[in-house]
Amino acid sequence: MMDYGKEYSSPVLKVDIEEAGYEPGRPRIHDIHFQVAEGELLGLIGPNGAGKSTTIKTIMGLLKDAKAAVKISGNPPRYAYVPEQPVFYNDLTLWEHLDLAAAAFGLDDDHFKKQATRLLRKFGMEHVQDDLPGGFSKGMKQKMMLMIGFMSEPDIYIVDEPFIGLDPRATKDFLALLNLERQRGAGILMSTHVLDTAEKICDSFVLISEGRVITQGDLDDIRSSAGLPGASLFDCFDALI
């Protein structure tokens, strides 16, 4: 695991949120500060209603009632967002969705075809590349969202509950792709409730409850905060939250 206590010289994502919410004068989150380094996978965890989604929306600049400073590396800054709930156009095929994403990311045609073919094969979706996603299962729609996110090879991935709807093989393929992106230097911010998987794959964690950071750091830091040496992330989460 990475040493979260170390000051990284060039984080790919730096988040400083004083407060943010959906209505003026009614903030939902307060004093949330963290950063994601090159190649780091940071898990954003907390119970329902803790403020994880609000934090992600603030990072993406979607909330006008926010006092926050968010810095994404790159010129121009490039990030990919993979939402929890699939979003798609009913009249576009899977291949056309990938093509549209490639155009939005400014990928040339050769790069797009090579990347799309690789991702379709990796997720076992070649047989439905010309089908409309409205007829896909929930897991297949989630795979499509993941493939769209991976198309651009950005500096930072923001992934919201990626394991919902994925079967074990798709989960394994997704994690393998994440590892390749981390080796490339991409950072990953992942919101998830699947704590046993998070414990295995994340370098560090930010635990949020009632709109505030409860603790953050690597697993040993979390154990220290919970006063539970050697405990699982789940037990620490239970004790802290």
Would you mind describing this structure in some detail?
With 241 residues, this protein is α/β, with parallel strands linked by helices. It folds into two domains: 9-78 and 155-241, P-loop containing nucleotide triphosphate hydrolases (Rossmann fold, 3-Layer(aba) Sandwich); 87-153, no CATH class. Helix content is 37%, strand content 25%. It has eight helices and nine strands. The chain has helices at 52-59, 94-105, 109-122, 138-151, 168-184, 195-201, 219-226, 233-240, and strands spanning 13-23, 26-36, 41-45, 65-72, 79-82, 156-160, 187-191, 204-209, 212-217. α5 (168-184) links the parallel β6 (156-160) and β7 (187-191). α2 packs across α3 and α2 (94-105) runs parallel beside α4 (138-151). Residues 1-9 have low confidence and may be disordered.
Features:
single chain; 241 residues; alpha/beta; Rossmann fold; 2 domains; 6-stranded mixed beta sheet; 3-stranded antiparallel beta sheet; 9 strands; 37% helix; 25% strand; disordered N terminus
With strands numbered from the N-terminus, the spatial order across the biggest sheet is 5-6-7-3-8-9
Provide the domain count. Answer: 2
CATH first level of the largest domain: Alpha Beta
Helix content, binned percent: 25-40%
Query: What are the secondary-structure elements, in order, as H or E?
Result: EEEHEEHHHEHEHEEHH
Low-confidence stretches: 1-9
> In terms of structural class, how would the helical and strand content be classed?
alpha/beta
Please count the helical segments. 8
For this structure, what is the CATH homologous superfamily of the largest domain? P-loop containing nucleotide triphosphate hydrolases
> Which CATH architecture of the largest domain would you pick?
3-Layer(aba) Sandwich
- The CATH topology of the largest domain: Rossmann fold
Mean of pLDDT: 91
Q: Strand percentage, roughly?
A: 25-35%
Shape: globular
Q: What is the rounded distance between the termini?
A: 23 Å
Topology, number of strands: 9
Computed over alpha carbons, the radius of gyration is 18 Å
| Quaternary status | single chain
Largest sheet: 6 strands, mixed
